[in-house]
Amino acid sequence: MIDLHTHTNRSDGTDSPRELINKAISLGMSVIGVTDHDTTSGWAEATESLRGTLGLALGSEISCLTEDGISVHMLGLLFDGGHTEMQIMLEETRDGRLPRMRKMIEKMRQTGIDIAMEDVYEALPEGATLGRPHLADALVNKGIIKSRDEAFQGMLNNDSQFYVSHAAPTPEVAIGIIRSAGGVAVIAHPFASLRGKILQTSDFKSLVDAGLNGIEVDHRDQNPDERAMLREIALDLDLVITGASDYHGSGKLNSLGEYGTSPDQWERLEAQSNSRRVVRA
Description:
Blueprint: E1 2-3, H1 17-26, E2 31-34, H2 43-48, E3 55-65, E4 71-77, H3 84-95, H4 97-110, H5 117-123, H6 132-141, H7 148-153, H8 171-180, E5 184-188, H9 204-210, E6 214-218, H10 224-237, E7 240-243, H11 263-270, E8 279-280
Parallel strand pairs: 1-2, 2-3, 5-6, 6-7
Antiparallel strand pairs: 3-4, 3-8, 4-5
Helix pairs in contact: 5-6, 8-9
């Protein structure tokens, strides 16, 4: 079992990197990707927790915005964690999250919703990358909504009146930096229409020109028709086809390993990095 897209409490997951690795081992997984949002801060603990035959594909899920304002998430895997330009991009993207959060809270307060920045900080694990899931947790804690899923289906959806975009690289820029850092770039859940506006088929050409390696096809937020369309796009463009859980611990319904990547597709993807960086015990 190969799951290339997961999160820990270093971003918006609820498991520590060690807990995530332990769960992957208990499931008998062969490779797990640790891809916290806009950070590599969980890499060390995940690496230290490795044992047995589990392979660790270190990476990050990078928040991007297209030129016309569509939110896109780009998985960078197997890149050099010490690459300066890569770390600068991650840091700048993290820095853009605080003013965005303040603006979203202000929009909510203007409609009478009793929420404050302090409530979000109380829901934010120490050292975690700030994000909308922490606002969702704060809203749950105050009894305004029942769950993160409810928040992202309504108040925190990309099409919501409360949504605010944030400073972020374009997908093409992110791909270029991932590749220059020796890694591979896989676009995450690009047709997840329940989240808001999505890419069109024609948008993939510029991503391929920038160096895109693969498409995350099998994901719970993409229905069977969307997956079939993405599989066809990947085949037409000769891109690697991946599947993943997008696991967040108890923060989302996604179960670790509920979708995976086939060994042959993973072998093809790994070969496109500039170095075999899968970590093993």
